[in-house]
Amino acid sequence: MEMTDVTILILAGLAAGVINTLAGSGSLITLPLLMFMGLPPAVANGTNRIGVVVQNIVATGNFIRQKELSPKKEWSLVIPTLFGSLVGALIAVEVNEDFLNYFIGGLLIVMFFVILLKPTSWIKGKAGRVRTTRSRIINSAIFFFIGVYGGFIQAGVGLFLLAGLVLSAGYDLVKANSVKVLMVLSFTIVALVIFLLAGKIVWSYGLLLAAGNAAGAWVASRNARKIGAKNIRYILLAVVLFSGLKVLGVF
Known about the structure:
Elements: H1 3-22, H2 27-36, H3 41-65, H4 75-94, H5 97-116, H6 119-127, H7 136-152, H8 157-167, H9 173-197, H10 203-222, H11 224-227, H12 229-247
Helix pairs in contact: 1-2, 1-10, 2-3, 2-12, 3-9, 3-10, 4-7, 4-9, 5-12, 6-8, 7-8, 7-9, 8-9
């Protein structure tokens, strides 16, 4: 691997770490980058999980130390996502590479419009009005299918988890964010094992991304007010649109 590639991977991981900390969806940058660098879609999909795991270990630890998260109280919601992630990852390692390539390209275009419409603002508006929780069966089904999506592709799953935790489980936005981090860490570890067993991971690329992810999370957590999620959103929109069109072969 050339130094140029090393630098690009670390910087991309840094950007993703900042974006995930301030706004979410950092994998929308790192996943297509790995594909641009020559990794097959399934291998890029697996390799990307390494940085996600490292970043969320740091974030989960911080939430626990700050007493904003008690993992023992959240397993009823975490466990369905674990099973869902297992199913999603098993599908991802077996799916046709051409299909996965087009799926990722299409997903990037869809996520461009999702980000453009600012769904987190809508979720935030709903958070204060949600007072009751739905039945455990309904919640389990919702988070199982979110887990399937997360195990299959990862990119953008935080948004779906946040929506489920606020609109279905009845959490306020602050609590939902801490539980989301725990859920992403838990089911990404499951997915990572499946990709590892299938030989769909390139550790050198993944560890470089992870180093950048960790640094980005540290920078963003200490300078959140200076950077601002609004500016991050504009950068993310541009990158996602370009990446989606590139993966689909438009140029």
